[in-house]
Amino acid sequence: MRFVLLAFIGITSCTLAHAQTIADTTLPPSAQKKISPARQAARQVKNLEKQLHLTQDQVLQLQVILINRDVAIDSLRHNPSGNRHDEARSRRAIQQRADRQIDALLTDDQRTLYQQWKQKQRERAMQRRLGSGSVPQ
After folding, report:
1. Largest distance between two CA atoms of the chain
2. Every domain of the chain and the residues it spans
């Protein structure tokens, strides 16, 4: 099981890295500065691993969930439908699906910590939107 997850993560990462390299050459310079879905997922996994005290198996499962989420959201971003409401609804559905998967792999204590972490993230996002300048970590 662990080998299958590692192989899947490896293949997904290589595919994403190759796709990102190809995409970087076709995107305008302003869009090239965006972080790749694989890097974004890796950053969040590292953060959540510390915050939630995850086991190694949980880390592997979380990587798969977050990479899939970030690839799906990145695909929406790079292939806009023209209908912002539908795109927002799709992003919310992708995020909710990932949250359900994450909740399923966490213990009760970790789930509580995850909910607290998500609340802090929402507060930080609200502060950024309101333009308050410095955002506490």
Report:
1. 46
2. 2-28+36-110
